[in-house]
Design a protein that fits this description.
This protein is mainly beta. It is built from 3 helices and 13 strands; from the N terminus they run H-H-E-E-E-H-E-E-E-E-E-E-E-E-E-E. The chain starts with a helix and ends in an 8-residue tail after the last strand.
Length: 200
């Protein structure tokens, strides 16, 4: 005979897993941690991309977004523009194509990073700034895991999306959107965030 009192006690010690959120809900929770990256060369506008916070005042974007420029800035809103003040770690485009950097942003709007490697078939979504349209969301699936720590996805990535976060459906960052084959195609890539020294 089952001891009902003991069973109830065991049930109460099992942590309750919160129900999964819809992507629309996750977007509202996460969008403030994503920003526009703009660069200048001399006195002229040079490039534009995306980026995101991983800790207070510490952001990530692609190396190729900043490459060749004199100065990079992050844009949270038209009235909130901050210079990139120091490069903490980086890797060129033919390797991991990332830059981890410091800014003077005081607000802690960092995103959570997944602790596990992504798997083929997982549903994912990206937030970025394609064609200058900030906080644009695209959804898709992981199509493959390729060499050089690249995650192949069919979520659309376009010019200006580079450096933005790729999320799993728990709202955790799993990659940095990096490149695509052709404009607006469904053959795109992100760098696996587990390959970066972000904890350091």
């Amino acid at each position: 005979e089952v001891n009902k009192g003991n069973t109830q006690e065991v049930e109460e010690t099992i942590p309750k897993v919160p129900p999964p959120k819809m992507v629309s809900e996750l977007f509202q929770d996460l969008k403030n941690g994503v920003f526009v990256v703009k660069t200048i060369l001399g006195e002229e506008f040079y490039t534009q991309g995306s980026g995101f916070f991983i800790a207070k005042g510490i952001g990530i974007t692609n190396y190729h977004v900043l490459q060749g420029s004199d100065q990079g800035f992050i844009v949270l809103s038209p009235d909130n523009v901050f210079p990139i003040t120091r490069i903490l770690s980086s890797s060129p485009p033919d390797k991991l194509d990332y830059v981890i950097f410091e800014t003077d942003v005081k607000e802690n709007i960092s995103l959570s990073i997944s602790k596990r490697n992504p798997e083929i078939g997982e549903d994912v979504f990206a937030i970025g700034t394609p064609k200058g349209l900030n906080n644009s969301l695209t959804k898709g699936t992981i199509s493959g895991i390729r060499k050089n720590q690249r995650i192949q996805i069919d979520a659309t990535i376009d010019h200006g999306s580079s450096g933005g976060p790729l999320f799993n459906l728990q709202g955790e960052v799993i990659g940095i959107t990096t490149s695509g084959v052709g404009t607006g195609s469904e053959l795109n890539f992100a760098v696996n965030i587990q390959a970066l020294p972000y904890e350091r």
